[in-house]
Specification:
single chain; mainly alpha; 13 helices
Length: 279
C-alpha cells in the first residue's frame, strides 16, 4: 500500500475509540434535541405568539434569529449552540492538533515514522486529512442523529437530512481553525502539554468573548463590537444555516480562510525546523 495511505489508515486506527465516542455523543445529542423539540414545540410557539415583544423564557431563541414562529428545524439546531456540542468538537480539534508533531516528538516516534519513505509534507498532510475527516464525521453524526429522530417524533415541520447538513457543516468548519492553530503550536514545539494549553486557552478566550458579547447588560458598551469581532464563535450560526442563510457563506469562507492560513504556516514551519534526535 502507498505509504501515505498506510499512515492515514494507522492514524484512524489510533483514534478509532475517541472518534467513535465523540460521534456517538453527538448522535445521541442530535436525537435528544429533536425529542425535546417535539415535546415543547407547541408550548414554545404559544409563548412566542403571546408575548412577541418580550423575551420571556424563549428570548434566547429570538436572539439567535428564529423569529416569532420558528420552524422545527430552527428550534432543533438552536440547541446546537449548546456548549456541550462545541466542547466535543473543540476537544477533538485540540487533541488531534497537539498529536501531530509535539506529541510524536515527546514519545520519540516521529523519527521512526519519518525514516519510512514519506516526506515531512506528506506526513503532516496525512495528519491533517485524518483529523479533518474525523472532525466532519463527528459533525455529521449530529445531523444523522437528528435526521433519524425526526422519523420517530412528531414535529410541526420535520426537516430533511439535507437541511440539517448545512448547520453540521458550519459546526465542522468551526472546528477547523481550532485544529489549525493548535497544529501550528504543535509544529513549533517538542512536547504536547504546551500546544494543548495554548490551544485550549485561545479557544476558551474566544468562547468567553462571544458569551460576553451577547450578554444584554453589555449591549451598549463601546468595546462590545471589538470583543465580538475577535471571536471565531460569532461565525457559528446554525439557525441562520437552516433559515435565511444570510451569513452562512461568509462565515464558512472566513473560517476556512483562517484555517488554511494556519495550516500553510504549519507546513512551512514543519518543513524547515530542526527535529530533535530520538535519544
Amino acid at each position: 500500500m502507498n505509504p501515505f495511505l498506510t499512515l492515514i489508515a494507522k492514524l484512524f486506527r489510533d483514534v478509532r475509540w475517541s472518534l467513535l465516542f465523540s460521534a456517538a455523543t453527538l448522535f445521541a445529542l442530535g436525537w435528544l434535541f429533536v425529542y425535546v423539540t417535539s415535546l415543547n414545540e407547541s408550548k414554545i410557539r404559544k409563548a412566542l405568539a403571546a408575548a412577541p415583544g418580550k423575551g420571556g423564557g424563549f428570548g434566547w431563541m429570538r436572539s439567535m434569529g428564529m423569529g416569532e414562529q420558528p420552524s422545527s428545524a430552527a428550534i432543533i439546531v438552536g440547541f446546537w449552540s449548546h456548549p456541550m456540542i462545541i466542547l466535543v468538537v473543540a476537544v477533538w480539534a485540540i487533541g488531534r492538533g497537539t498529536s501531530a508533531v509535539g506529541s510524536e516528538i515527546e514519545r520519540g516516534t516521529l523519527d521512526l515514522v519519518l525514516s519510512r519513505p514519506i516526506s515531512r509534507s506528506s506526513y503532516l498532510t496525512a495528519q491533517i486529512v485524518a483529523s479533518l475527516s474525523g472532525l466532519f464525521l463527528i459533525a455529521l453524526s449530529l445531523a444523522a442523529g437528528a435526521a433519524i429522530a425526526v422519523r420517530y417524533n412528531v414535529l410541526g415541520s420535520p426537516p430533511g437530512f439535507g437541511q440539517l447538513v448545512r448547520p453540521a457543516l458550519n459546526l465542522a468548519v468551526l472546528g477547523l481553525p481550532i485544529y489549525a492553530y493548535t497544529l501550528l503550536f504543535s509544529t513549533l514545539d517538542h512536547v504536547r502539554w504546551r500546544p494543548t494549553m495554548l490551544g485550549s486557552m485561545l479557544t476558551l478566550a474566544g468562547f468567553i468573548a462571544r458569551v460576553i458579547a451577547v450578554i444584554p447588560v453589555f449591549k451598549d458598551m463601546s468595546w462590545r463590537p471589538w470583543v465580538d469581532q475577535a471571536s471565531i464563535f460569532r461565525l457559528y450560526d446554525p439557525v441562520d444555516a437552516v433559515t435565511g442563510r444570510e451569513h452562512f457563506g461568509f462565515n464558512v469562507a472566513v473560517l476556512i480562510g483562517l484555517s488554511a492560513a494556519c495550516i500553510t504556516v504549519s507546513h512551512l514551519v514543519f518543513a524547515t525546523r530542526d527535529l530533535p534526535a530520538n535519544g
